[in-house]
Amino acid sequence: MKLYTNITENCKNTIERSSRTFAASFSVGETKYTDIKSLKILVPSAFNGKVGIGGTISNSVEIISGKIKLTSGTVIKAYESVLLDSGEYEDVPMGKYRITSAVTKDSLTTIKAEGPLSTETGLGYFSNLEYPATTIQMLNEISDAINVPIIVDGLEEIYIDSKPEGYTYREVIGYLAAVHGTNAAETRDGSIALKWYEHCEEDIFTDRADSPDINNELFVVGKLECTTSSECIVRGDGKTGIAINNPLVTENIADIIWNKIGGFTYRAATFNVKLGNPCVDIWDCFSYKDDTVIATELQYVHDGGLQNVYKSVGESETSANGAKGPVTKQMERYWQELVFINEALVNKLSVDQLDAVEANITSAVIGTIDGRYATFEYLSSNYINTTVFEAISGRVGTLE
User: Fold this and answer.
1) Angstrom distance (rounded) from CA 94 to CA 129
2) Mind listing the pLDDT tens digit of every residue in the chain (400 residues)?
3) Burial 316-346 (b: 16+ CB within 10 A, else e)
4) Residue (of 175, 181, 140) closest to 160 by Cα position
5) Which of 24, 194, 269, 348 has a CA between 20 and 30 Å from the CA of residue 296?
6) Among 220, 318, 210, which residue's Cα sits nearest to residue 270?
7) DSSP states along 48-103
8) Where are the beta strands (DSSP E) in 277-343?
9) Cα-atom radius of gyration of the chain, to the nearest Å?
10) Selection from 172, 169, 105, 176 nearest residue 136 by Cα
11) What is d(CA 33, CA 329) in angstroms, rounded to the nearest whole number?
12) CA nearest 49: which of 261, 216, 295?
């Protein structure tokens, strides 16, 4: 496989040189902004730096530019432009984002923006499909609902037996990604794609990176633990591996996942690539000496030149990479249930459905979370806006 390839051969050859000139820019519609002082893009880890599946990896960007007037909610496209021998610049697309803050101080404006997996997927998923349904049907339904393309070309047709209820779009995208043995990531045009690691033949490190920090042990996906709503399904018996929480996994689906990721081996490392490459993606993995190295976290830093930070972490024993601690997970699940109820009211779901969600909230919170965090008084003052609070407080009541 190759790096991002939708560039000219001339651009590719220029990037590979030791002396290059880059210019960062971004656009809003047809208007392009080029007075950029710095541009930093973070493709974060979904699993605290470790390898995993079912992650929803949303990019973020911070841009410092000359003074401009833009507001939150504006959609931008970022570019890293390469100066060619002809004297012209060729744009390498670096993602599509929605501005979350824009602050001007003196002559500079600092813009922060996030990708569609953060900004477009927070509402409740209410499927209108008949089940069993395929993962492709579900992804297409979600794509239509959130108005973001989700790439399904090449995906295996896997059937999901029952309708997932009480989850956000982002959660379901993550569950479906795990079913395929992948993570959900954002592409350079703002689409969502399900990706596992793809080996690239290019050498992006030799004579281009500082001496890396290399883990002494290899990490092998020797075990898979899938915790569903009713059981824990295990594949493999290795000492290191991946653990996930996923209500969609069955014995058959666990086999599909294991056949894809079982035995995957890499050496954790951190590379500071001084001569960075704008065409590297989070799912690209490379050879370094005799080992495979991957990035579970990737940074692009434009500050005159371009640098990459290419980073991954390994562990010495199986841990729940995809799972959070019980209190953290339940608080997150509780919040998602609140979002679901708010959406349910809008969608006029039945009283029985709302009662089921209320019961889920009660069982998730009582007895496991400190009482001061399990009240609407606390949540309303810290997490929930007035509209949402008023919409749900009368329906659910105080959980104490």
Assistant:
1) 34
2) 578 999 999 999 999 999 999 999 999 999 999 999 999 999 998 888 889 999 999 999 999 999 999 999 999 999 999 999 999 999 999 999 999 999 999 999 999 999 999 999 999 999 999 999 999 999 999 999 999 999 999 999 999 999 999 999 999 999 999 999 999 999 999 999 999 999 998 888 988 999 999 999 899 999 999 999 899 999 999 999 999 999 999 999 999 999 999 999 999 999 999 999 999 999 999 999 889 999 999 999 998 889 999 999 876 444 434 444 334 444 555 555 555 555 555 555 544 455 554 455 444 443 334 443 444 444 444 444 444 444 444 444 443 3
3) eebbbbbbeeeeeebbebbebbbbbbbbbee
4) 175
5) 24
6) 210
7) TTS--SS-EE--EEEEEEES----TT-EEEEEEEEE-TTS-EEEEEEEEEEEEEEE
8) 284-288, 291-293, 297-303, 305-311
9) 23
10) 176
11) 41
12) 295
**What would the two tokens of residue 399 be?**
């959980």
